[in-house]
Amino acid sequence: MKTTFTTVASLALLLFLGSFSQTKAQPQQDPSTTTLLHLDSIFWSTYNLCDLATMENFVADDLEFFHDKGGITLGKANFISSVANNLCGNENFKVRREAVAETIKVFPMYKAGELYGVIISGDHLFYNQQKGEQEFLAGVAKFANLWLLQDNTWKMARVFSYDHGPAPYQNSRKAISLPVGMLSQFIGEYDGPTAGRLTIQQEDSALILLTNHQKIALHPETQNRFFARERDLTFEFISGNGKAASKMVVRENGNVVEEAVLHQKK
For position 100, which CATH number holds? Predict the structure, then answer.
């Protein structure tokens, strides 16, 4: 079934920080910046793998994490506890973070000619995966983070995560042409355990899906599978003994989210 974002508290932990690992090298970098590139790469490996024991080595004791949806998290202990209970608290649900390489910027911070910190900013994407299902792009956000050199060790000290939103969908499916007469075999009302009554109608040379809340045009990808352009939704019609469809399988992000059977009128 479809996996949505977890609670706001969980989301606050999923959409944060930036990555040096996918940032192009900049001229005249302080040697310490190269060290941070390596450290950041390790950190994001631990993040994606939920390796909390290693992850906490990168976080300052007085961490301040600001989120435009989930509020403020103060201190390393609270941060690690929240990650353990949310992001890494469900073995059947995984999140993978990926930076948008072309958006990442690195700003060294100096005092009296010595590097004391680095600000990282940019965009990043997050992919969700339910156990046994396909991974899908779930969200996008902006970030701005401050790493500080504390007792000769680099620590993430301040984190800003903001402008959260759903990931933009880019349709890559291609519609084919079907004879208008073929569409009549898919028309009808289908009952699903989750969505309830789904109505398929024909308007001119196109199929239309009607629900209680919306009207969606369906475009043929094969002779019995249609797709929506607005979201990654497909509708596969399964025929019974006769020619007409008796079942409609709905998939989102490649995962089955509904199996609706043709309503039998009494």
Answer: 3.10.450.50
